[in-house]
TrEMBL record:
Source taxon at top rank: Bacteria
GO biological process: methylation
PANTHER family reported in the protein's UniProt record: METHYLTRANSFERASE, UBIQUINONE BIOSYNTHESIS O-METHYLTRANSFERASE, MITOCHONDRIAL
Gene3D superfamilies per the UniProt record, alphabetical: Vaccinia Virus protein VP39 (3.40.50.150)
Gene Ontology terms, MF aspect: methyltransferase activity
Entry protein name: Class I SAM-dependent methyltransferase
Lineage: Bacteria, Bacillati, Actinomycetota, Actinomycetes, Micrococcales
Residues in Methyltransferase domain copies: 46-138
Keywords from the named record: Methyltransferase, S-adenosyl-L-methionine, Transferase
Coiled-coil regions listed: none
Amino acid sequence: MTSAASGPDAIFADARLAAVYDAFEGDRDDLAAYAAMAEEFRASHILDIGCGTGAFATSMARRGLRVTAADPAEASLTVAQGKPGAAAVRWVHGTAQDVLPLQADLAFMTANVAQVFLTDAEWMSCLHAIRAALRPGGRLVFESRDPRRRAWEDWTRARTHRLVRTAAEGEADRWEQLRSVDGEFVTFETVTVFRRDGERIDSSSTLRFRSREALAETVERAGFTVEEVRDAPDRPGREFVFVARRPGESSPGERNAHD
Ligand SMILES: C[S@@+](CC[C@H](N)C(=O)[O-])C[C@H]1O[C@@H](n2cnc3c(N)ncnc32)[C@H](O)[C@@H]1O
């Protein structure tokens, strides 16, 4: 089983797979809502935990925000560092613990990073580190798939196969294949086949599907106040978007989430 404790999955950590990650993720409509939240909360210093290939971090830097971005997958960071705006980002090869000390205004975990933390100890330790990396009054925004929607039931070759022409590697096929469901733990393979030379690379992943109640309880236990649980606009009803606040003073001029 691949877990946060044993290092990031091959799909993020293998250089050949990391080079085609963006091509398979498409135009990233999911990130617009998070960029809007940075404006809504008048953040000037963003923290991006599990930044992957840096699509969000570099887009925030191009808007002129200060950005700190961390990921344990070095191959993904290498891709990120080649993007426009990357020179303005502080890149950290590691986890939330490795960004400290910091006083960010707003932390993000986009694209269901929260689901890679399989044990309660890993998840709580990530939440505690993010809390410590926020200024008093700062916020954490993260998403996690709603287990009641049973997204894994669609993770078959027939339903997920796509063929993409990638800039880095030419045409490549990719599909997901469910392996097992064990309570909240869902294990699946992501298979990539490079048509250029026929190489096939399988990446095994396990994700944890926590309930909304369990997420809220753990976030509160880590010292945050859950302000809201929103819908992801591009995936209505499928994911929880948590907005949690580190108690404390707001900076001058900051607008409250409920204003
Ligand atoms: C689904 S990707 C999301 C990447 C990025 N946030 C995005 O929106 O494209 C999950 C990311 O979590 C990272 N990750 C795995 N374990 C982690 C940990 N313990 N702490 C922080 N990030 C981790 C992986 O390396 C991977 O880049």
